[in-house]
Write a structure and sequence with these properties.
Helix content is 90%, strand content 0%. By secondary structure, it is mainly alpha-helical. It has one domain. Helix 2 crosses helix 3. The radius of gyration is 66 Å and the shape is rod-shaped. Pfam families: ATP-synt_B. GO terms for molecular function: proton-transporting ATP synthase activity, rotational mechanism; proton-transporting ATPase activity, rotational mechanism. One of its GO terms (cellular component) is plasma membrane.
Length: 189
């Protein structure tokens, strides 16, 4: 392999026109012409469609950015609207709670008033019943005490009182005196 490299170097030393870095003039001319033809063809045919594709892509990107900005603005508006709706819902809930509290207070007050009224009626009925029972007991006691007093007076005197009007007057007078004696005794107690 060393031999091959040395023979290539020796061969190149004999021909001074061959250079690895500088091509021959005809190759340089034909290469330049071919390059220009390819460059012009690309510039005429491929570049417009490539440029159009780049412009389309730039337009799509720009439209996407605008759509994103519009969507961002809509989202911000919706958030603001939702925030306002949430605040309205909180206010409405507070109003409903206040109404419910007021209704509860009203219902409690009405129930208390009705309970007081019913209690007053029950007390009044009980008082009337007690008065009626007391009057009935007085009448019964009055007639029984009158009968007992008449019987007692008859035993003491030894004769039966035949006049019922007289017996009634004596009995009433005795009971009145007894009641009059009972009232000061009750006041002292």
């Amino acid at each position: 392999m060393i031999r091959m490299i040395s023979s290539t170097i020796l061969a190149t030393e004999g021909h001074s026109t061959f250079s690895l870095l500088v091509p021959a003039v005809p190759d340089l001319i034909w290469g330049t012409v071919a390059f220009l033809i390819v460059a012009i063809a690309i510039y005429k045919f491929a570049w417009p469609s490539f440029s159009a594709t780049l412009d389309e892509r730039a337009d799509k990107i720009e439209k996407g950015i605008q759509a994103a900005e519009i969507a961002r603005a809509e989202i911000a508006q919706e958030r603001a609207g939702l925030g306002e709706q949430l605040r309205d819902a909180h206010r409405e809930a507070e109003v409903i709670r206040e109404r419910a509290t007021d209704n509860a207070k009203t219902i409690v007050a009405q129930a208390q008033a009705q309970a007081h009224s019913e209690a007053g009626q029950i007390l009044e009925v009980a008082r009337r019943r007690i008065e009626a029972d007391s009057d009935a007991a007085r009448r019964t006691l009055h007639s029984e005490v009158g009968t007992l007093a008449t019987d007692l007076a008859a035993r003491i005197v030894g004769e039966a009182i035949t006049d019922s009007a007289l017996a009634q007057r004596v009995t009433d007078r005795f009971l009145d005196e007894l009641e009059a004696a009972m009232i000061p005794a009750n006041q002292e107690a």
